């Protein structure tokens, strides 16, 4: 004990030696203290600087403080999508667009980079440009503009190979980033509820940040704490709610049946309008109205506006927890968007097949015309040195270039989605809030409490809109390289526009609920969209023949042949052999089987770890409960044991007569109660008020020597005084 006390004193003197001394030691200590405080302040300021450097962090925190973590999770997801698209734009712009602009042939040099003569009169009309025709169609925005030469420029840049690798690499990079984000978020886990106990006590006494010095920040923190209490109250109410299980099951089955009918009807409607648009494409465009030209985009945007509120109304029958209801709503809108998109793709590929047949006939006619020209020129001039036909690029007969047509459809879908989203916010939120705010004083009923009231932020619709839009970007980027840059501008403006709208036009949800601790549900939907977006692109690369007169793969039977050409012409022979062996089905099938077995093993191991963690949590909870019960019942137990002691005979609890210790207190009393036989809790140690006495001859000054009568039931009982 004395040694521990001495160690603590030495540590105290070493720590505050400068403050206790004089002269240089005191100044050095003051300097150290000053530098330590400055370093603490520097670290705090640097952390604040890093937080300030995170894009839109303060905006998102402000939204979270007023609308809860569920609404803030959408803006966090939007910021993450913006960062992902920035990287994709850097790949596409740096490795495809910029080399073509800097080292490729200029506009008007070849037919694929020239507006046809029949379209030049209207190539700059606003109506044509808004439909991405005219000069937009023959620009770097679309696939058909890029040249098919193996190498371009002084650097001998392989543009076709770069185009293919970037088109596939976008999916690879996106897949890697999504899986990495899901793995990082899985450590947080949970479904949004608090696993610990005393939730409300912790929120009450530990939520405030005492370093806040800004009144606006204090107001935001106050609103955040209030919203957090509302979230926890909703969770507690949902956990204690009783329900009629049979009626609830019937209503949920009915709700899912109605939603399935809505999904089937929307898919049939999209397929019908796409077929009508193919019929309109064969007619004169001047005879068509604006609605007939944009019927497909209008119907898809209208379904995206009408169906989500309809699903939300039907979901009221189910009475799920708000967090679970949000996931169901997300899944249903996801099925709607995905079904609409794939219905659009199936109808679009029918149009692609029709364009391929038309292109084949144009190609055969072109080849026949060139052969006739060469034979006539050779027979007339009696020479074999035949120059190419002198035809202006604008007058060359060309095919429909189905890749550019597909890219135009994706760009038009993206632009129409942007227009509908922004107009919905402007009319559905801003104009509605203006009416409620300024007409409430002169209206027949309370507009704020009744119809129309202020709008709530639609989390499910906005999240699925982002995911659906990103799926179109992934699919359309291969046919329209400029689509990624357009999406970056869309996400940048959406962050400011929607932050303004939600803070000025919306009110918090009536039932505020806590978002999931991780965004893995959003990421799971995004991963599924990524996989489904990859399928049409892979089908295009591996199956469909490219156009013969436009794009970087023209003149080849398949798009992936550019890889084989590079291996054969630019790489050593043994690399070609390795690639041939690697693509052998006899090697691919065992590798796929091994990967499936590895995934199964890792999945089983992960489940075992989860079960072990659950068991460990249960044991820790049981240990905490036992410790709490033991601590709560300790006083009652000690009181009962003391009552039992009082009932026992006094002679059984008294020790034998012992001599006084040298240096003991003058009260003359020995030890009457044995420690070994006491049933009550031991008394606390008394304070030391005298120095220790000298040791006796036996070397044991702490108590009487052991004797035959020590302990109960041993030897003869001690004699009474």
Automatic annotation (TrEMBL):
Segments forming domain TMC: 401-516
Subcellular location: Membrane
GO molecular function per UniProt: mechanosensitive monoatomic ion channel activity
Annotated GO biological process: detection of mechanical stimulus involved in sensory perception of sound; vestibular reflex
Annotated Gene Ontology cellular component terms: plasma membrane
Transmembrane segments: 80-105, 126-146, 161-179, 253-274, 329-349, 472-493, 521-542, 578-602
Region called Disordered, residue ranges: 621-721
Tagged with keyword Transmembrane helix: yes
Biased composition (Basic and acidic residues): 621-634
Bilayer topology: Multi-pass membrane protein
UniProt record similarity statement: Belongs to the TMC family.
Name used for this protein in its record: Transmembrane channel-like protein
Species for this entry: Oncorhynchus tshawytscha (Chinook salmon)
Taxonomic lineage from the root: Eukaryota, Metazoa, Chordata, Craniata, Vertebrata
